[in-house]
Amino acid sequence: MLAIFLKRLLLAIPVLLAVASLTFFLIKLAPGGPFDADRAVSPQVLKNLEAAYNLDSSQWEQYVDYMSGIVVGDFGPSFRYPGRSVSEMIATGLPITFELAFYAILIALLIGVSSGVLAALKRNTYLDFIPMAIAMIGICVPTFLMGPLLVLIFGINLEILPVSGWGQLSGDKILPSVTLGFAYAAYIARLSRGGMLEILNQDFIRTARAKGLTETKVVVKHAMQGGLIPVVSFLGPAVAGLLAGSFVVETIFQIPGLGRFYVEAAFNRDYTMILGTTIFFSAMIVFFNLLSDLAALWLNPRSRDTR
Amino acid sequence: MSNNSSLWSDAIYRLSRNKAAMFGAAILIVLIILATLAPWIAPYSYSFQNLELGASPPSSVHWLGTDTLGRDLLSRILYGARISLLVGFVATGVALVIGVSWGIIAGYMGGKVDSVMMRIVDVLYGLPFIIFIILLMVIFGRNLWLLFGAIGAVEWLTMARIVRGQVIGLKNQEFVMAAQAMGVSNFAMFKKHLLPNILGPIAVYATLTIPQVMLLEGFLSFLGLGIQPPMSSWGTLIKDGVESMEEYSWLLIYPGLTFTITLFALNFFGDGLRDALDPKTTDN
Fold first, then answer.
1. Residue B241 to residue B251: CA distance in whole angstroms
2. Residues 27-86 in B contacting A (C-alpha not used; CB under 8 Å)
3. What is the mean pLDDT of chain B?
4. Residue A203: is it exposed, middle or buried by C-beta count within 10 angstroms (0-12/13-18/19+)?
5. B147, B45, B164, B159: which is closest to B88 by C-alpha?
6. Cβ(A186)–Cβ(A134) under 8 Å?
7. How far apart are CA B103 and CA B117, in angstroms?
8. How many CB atoms lie within 10 A of CB A66?
9. Which DSSP state fits A161?
10. Is B261 helix (H, G, I), strand (E, B) or coil?
């Protein structure tokens, strides 16, 4: 287990290095410098600015400089917000985005797994059809529509929940978390239903029932361990989706998280910020994919033996 | 194609008995016709402004109301359908071309070529592609064709895996060996012998890719990084609708409804096609 983990971790390093290099040189391709947007500056000022941001050295030097900075967690200064570093902005935005993603995935798992397992157990009854129909809605209504609709219903018409913010008014975390979690609840419900249906037909479940275990024990102890492997494998790639979802949700609800910083940086052409967050996001996603692969491997006894 | 027509006619028969799939197909056909004919049937131009009127609720003159600039919402939805559907089909086409060629080559060549090509796919799978699309849009400007290419370039991975699996299954069958023995070139082998036999899974996956691509376009346009005004896709209409939803909720509701119904139709049709072409999965 540890050997697999270390091997995969080692494999991730060249991948991240390649991503960082590619992003770095892509950004260099971008037309226009970072300082020519707002106002005309004198050549001397421009020169000083370029010296301050290390833009006057050769590309290779800049690259080496940047890469050695990343290793110690220094992503350089923000082009847009003088005096603030990219690392600082990641550090302020990240906890908020993490909290949002955590609540969302919690909601998704609670609703998704329970309704998926229930649907599988009560196959072809209303307890199967209704949750699965709702799941189809969750998959077809995009986050950027679901969020505004929830705001319209619960925030503006019913006036029972705040329409924006994060941690300022009581209950303002509910709508963003539900918006982000809903689509995942739908996917997880479908995955856990499918996984459970496959497992429930297998011999060891019949054995468990035959030896007189209670139905709860059969489902919780025997079926769910195998039936939920697809859900665990889904969680890794889901982090990438959650991230994209956080761009939308944080924009809709005006939450000062990393996702909103990223979208703003993309708008403002804050190149260092884009570069830094892209590399950071990539590292995070590679790491979570690794974790979910390992968890799925660990849950599946068959792959535990063969590898 | 002619020799496996029975598979296809079987599939069409099964598909025609699937009500949800047929309903989806009907909606899609109507939408495609409406989108194609938009310049002739839309009551107004998508950019025609009536600033005096401003935002007005649905009425007999403007069936779905007008936006804050007095533009007819129905016309804008019809023109938006052109962009949204175009992105869906073109980007899926790009993904199809890359994914199918990649998968056929990897599967047919086997050995080192295969393992290198599929390792590349594995690595790319683990990367946050949405961020790269945004990056490309920021660096090279928000250009419609770039958007098609960028979305297509990220959606081909699953297609490559599916096609490779299918080709490996076909590779050792007698007709392929016979063709090899006759000295058929690699290209002819791909085109005449392998491709026709894997059209089913390709068609299914392509149908299910279209809604994903449309979601991605909507997502980018919603963030303001996709289609730029005065052109509109359904994503930009939803974005505009959100900005004024407090007073003029119809501006959010109708584009949102259109988008959702289309996604439903595509998903139902794709699921139906999968069940029809692969009867094994029907019982799930």
1. 5
2. none
3. 83
4. exposed
5. B147
6. yes
7. 9
8. 20
9. S
10. helix
- The pLDDT assigned to B283 comes to 41
Q: Crossing angle, helix A2-29 and helix A59-71, to 10 degrees? A: 150
Q: Which residues of chain B have pLDDT under 50?
A: 1-2, 281-284
> Could you tell me the pTM of the whole model?
0.83
pLDDT, position B284: 37
| Cβ under 8 Å to A: B residues 217-256 | 218-219, 222-225, 235, 238-239, 241-242, 245-246, 249, 252, 256
The answer to whether residues A142 and A149 touch, using CB atoms and an 8 Å cutoff, is no
In order, the DSSP letters of A169-208 are STTTTHHHHHHHHHHHHHHHHHHHHHHHHHHHTSHHHHHH
Instruction: Find, among A20, A167, A152, the residue nearest to A100 by Cα.
Output: A167
pLDDT tens per residue across span B205-257? 888 889 889 988 888 888 888 877 777 888 888 988 888 888 888 888 899 99
Of the candidates A77, A98, A101, the residue with the CA atom closest to the CA atom of residue A89: A77
Q: Which ipTM score applies to this complex?
A: 0.81
Coil, helix or strand for B56? strand
